[in-house]
Amino acid sequence: MDALEDQEWLDGVATRMRTTVRTLPLGRGRDVLRGLWLGHPLHPALVQLPIGSWSSAAILDLLPGESRAARRLVAVGLVAAAPAALAGWVDWAEQRPRQSRVGLVHAAANLAAVVSYAASLTARTKGRPVLGRVLGFGGLTVATVGGVLGGHLAYRQAAGVNHAEAVPVLVEPGWHRVGTLDDFPVGVPVRRMTGEVALVVVRDEEGALNALADRCSHMDGPLHEGKVLENCIECPWHGSRFRLSDGATLQGPATAPQPSFECRIAPDGAVEVRLAQL
């Protein structure tokens, strides 16, 4: 797996594929496929249907008299593979180079599985059940390899995870001083620290202060370098947008909300923040 991450020759292919995926006319469907409405990536949930169907077909292939049911399950898996793959490609298009290299091989393994199962279904339909079973077992083997690569992406390379999850653990309870009101020009994102956690503080036109964790939940992008647009802040790396008032994610590729902080002006004029109470 580590060696696969180092295969720089895959970057050329990744660049072309990334351009293709980003230009697909998906509209708001792109955030639906990302899982913005769900709060975490949708792709891992969608893959359960094809993998479950094909695994069940493999079990039925070992039993007598179950060829029709196995054939139907193979067909269900092929149909379900399409939306799962599309969601995966949408996520993949915003990944780092080392992640995208593994992701390409992950996709290639899954494509090989789809081809194998399509051939298996064809063989079964034409009355060649033995060949159909062999191709099915081959497809399941390759799909398993693809699943292992997907696990490496998620658990080793942290693709799709919430990179801001640790913020509530790292921030000490109570109020923390981050400057004075003059330190925060209207509409300008300003980076401040509270303990080990970086914050981005934005003062709106009405004088109200909003503070969010500075590192984007998608891939740690520096929000203080982003744009303030319509009461939101946009990550400069991948364009995720978070509502300043509460950190809600309004546009992907981020799916998790951004930790937010309450702000107040202390009697001595200092600006103080504390983690928003859930």
Q: What is the CA–CA distance across the termini?
A: 39 Å
Approximately what portion of the residues adopt beta-strand conformation?
15-25%
Report the structural category.
alpha+beta
In total, the number of strands is 10
Query: What helical percentage do the residues reach?
Result: 40-55%
The 3D shape can be described as elongated
- The structural domain count equals 2
Topology:
Blueprint: H1 2-5, H2 10-22, H3 29-34, H4 43-46, H5 48-61, H6 67-92, H7 97-125, H8 129-156, H9 167-170, E1 176-180, E2 190-194, E3 197-203, E4 209-213, E5 227-229, E6 232-234, E7 241-243, E8 249-251, E9 260-265, E10 270-275
Antiparallel strand pairs: 1-10, 2-3, 3-4, 4-9, 5-6, 6-7, 7-8, 9-10
Helix pairs in contact: 5-6, 5-8, 6-7, 7-8
Brief synopsis:
The protein has 278 residues and is an alpha+beta fold. The chain has nine helices and ten strands. The strands form two sheets. A six-stranded antiparallel β-sheet has the order 1-10-9-4-3-2. Strands 5-6-7-8 form a four-stranded antiparallel β-sheet, with no helix packed on it.
